[in-house]
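Handout for the seminar on molecular recognition.
Each group receives one record of this type.
Step one: identify the two inputs.
Step two: read the structure output and locate the region that could contact PBG.
Step three: write two sentences on what you found, then compare them with the reference statements printed after the record.
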Amino acid sequence: MNRTLRIGTRGSALALAQTGHVADALRAAGADVEIVTISTPGDRSSAPIAEIGIGVFTSALRDALANGEIDVAVHSYKDLPTARDPRLSLAAVPPREDPRDALVARDGLTLGELPAGSRVGTGSPRRAAQLEALGLGLEVVPLRGNVDTRIRKVRDGELDAVVLARAGIARLGRTAEITETLEPIQMLPAPAQGALAVECRVDDVDTEHLLQSTLDDSASRAAVAAERALLAALEAGCSAPVGALADVVEDLDDQGAVVHRLSLRGVMAAEDGDLLRASATGDLTAAEELGRALAAELLDLSGLAAARSEGRS
Ligand SMILES: NCc1[nH]cc(CCC(=O)O)c1CC(=O)O
């Protein structure tokens, strides 16, 4: 291809870092690329995400792509709405970063070392619900802003700790500031956390092929597909309290041969704030079915939980 690919990105340090990696990989494959920064309403507002809605970071980028202002859009996958955009093709899911959440706390402390009453910042209902369920007596404080702003609140002494996606901190080269990486058993990440979504126009088959062959990682794509199908089936949107994580695991088939399968875990907050958990394993080629099946199981559990709390009252 001898045209220059215009890659659109948000202007935050995190977005520029992750788009830079995508651009480098495309250049290494011989493509001619240029980066175009697009400002989104999500970048201009400081209201809680739950109020301004899912898609605030991504729809301006998607419109610019559909209109032909750019040829490729790079998103944090977890910020995308679950509904497909018929104008666009999800051409590549690059190898996923560590999907876990991370704690940045004062004085090098871990979650378990934070004294009761410590103020822990997060704007995410998913993180808040899971922090509260740990029973450590932590005070969860609402928080928004970019990675730098959030970490600064700990440095300034305004908060004792913040919880962030490890991937975001890593992409900014600041992993030294992490005081604990949270295990999924305590804190399941957001569906698709740590993954990127690289889109092009649905009719731009040359670009689609280039992105797919240069960037796509099938294991990351399958894992994220399962997590997102679970989220979509729970109709929860980005900031609702749903966590999910799929891992590719080795299993044995009927003949005793090693096969790769998907192991999916999910968590959801019931109405009374209790956490409901479920897990299941399925074929790599049926990721979305696995996600939907686990969502159905969580919905059954939430029905049982609701009936139980009614019985109590
Ligand atoms: N909601 C904002 C957002 N979108 C993507 C990331 C981090 C990188 C990623 O998960 O890919 C973050 C920051 C955070 O949750 O701490």
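Reference statements: The radius of gyration is 20 Å. The chain has three domains: 4-94+195-216, 101-181, 224-312.
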